[in-house]
Design brief:
two-stranded antiparallel sheet; 9 helices; 4 strands; membrane; transmembrane; transmembrane helix
Length: 256
């Protein structure tokens, strides 16, 4: 019984944690491949930024629109990539005025909500990935394989696949986006504890928990679709990077 009441939270953790690692891994592999192909770091990074432009546009626009909706002043809006100290690449940014913790947390989380919503739509309609979860959970491997190999025959599949890839690869908030999350989560936990002590446990379990659980379940689906897309690309990218390193006689050193 407890699993059905918390399945959204459980699936969210099961999909979000491996997706976070997969996204970091894929970004590293892709940057390495582009630098090896061009043999010039600045050209490789420029191609990398251009590849992810649709996702970066959605990410930064989400920050901008959330700030405007919450009546927080905005400053510079840039989609031009730039190298930061330490060799880190910044694909875009929006300057926003410091506000209260709640509004800062909502502005920081905006790309996650918009990106998740777009991934839910792309996975359910143009890409037709929704039935795959049922086949996977049922262990019907033959039907799952047939469904996978039939995906490229869908109308405009590669366009939708590219958009889904770039959006999923850029929808996670950065460290600067997340700075207000911890205080807000601690405050929410304190309010929840106070409500439980006040005797509101039954009301929370009946009304609030199902709503939050369903929201987490929807976000878990978005992360799951994103994880599948990253898993499809990680193996060929990793193999290509190894082949290029061997062919060119070089070895890439990644910063941790």
């Amino acid at each position: 019984m407890w699993f059905s009441a918390l399945d959204g939270f459980i699936w969210l953790a099961a999909c979000a944690i491996p997706f976070w690692f997969a996204q970091r891994w894929l970004h590293r592999e892709l940057q390495g491949v582009l630098v090896l192909l061009t043999r010039r770091e600045e050209i490789g990074l420029a191609m990398y930024a251009l590849l992810f432009f649709p996702g970066v546009l959605l990410h930064e626009s989400s920050h901008f629109l959330a700030a405007r909706l919450l009546r927080v002043r905005t400053g510079k809006f840039s989609l031009i990539p730039r190298l930061l100290p330490g060799g880190r690449l910044q694909l875009g940014y929006v300057e926003t005025e410091k506000s209260d913790l709640f509004r800062d947390a909502m502005i920081g989380a905006a790309p996650l909500f918009t990106g998740g919503a777009v991934m839910l739509w792309l996975g359910g309609q143009p890409l037709g990935l929704a039935p795959l979860a049922g086949l996977l959970s049922a262990g019907d491997w033959a039907a799952l394989w047939q469904a996978l190999i039939s995906l490229p025959r869908l109308p405009d599949f590669w366009l939708w696949f590219y958009l889904a890839f770039t959006i999923s690869a850029t929808m996670l908030p950065s460290a600067s986006d997340r700075y207000a999350w911890l205080p807000v989560l601690l405050l929410a936990a304190a309010l929840l504890g106070a409500a439980l002590l006040a005797g509101a446990g039954n009301w929370l379990q009946t009304w609030l928990l199902p709503l939050v659980n369903r929201a987490c379940g929807s976000l878990a689906v978005a992360f799951g679709v994103s994880l599948v897309l990253h898993a499809i690309l990680l193996l060929p990218l990793g193999l290509l990077r190894r082949l290029l390193c061997r062919w060119l006689g070089v070895e890439l050193a990644y910063e941790t």
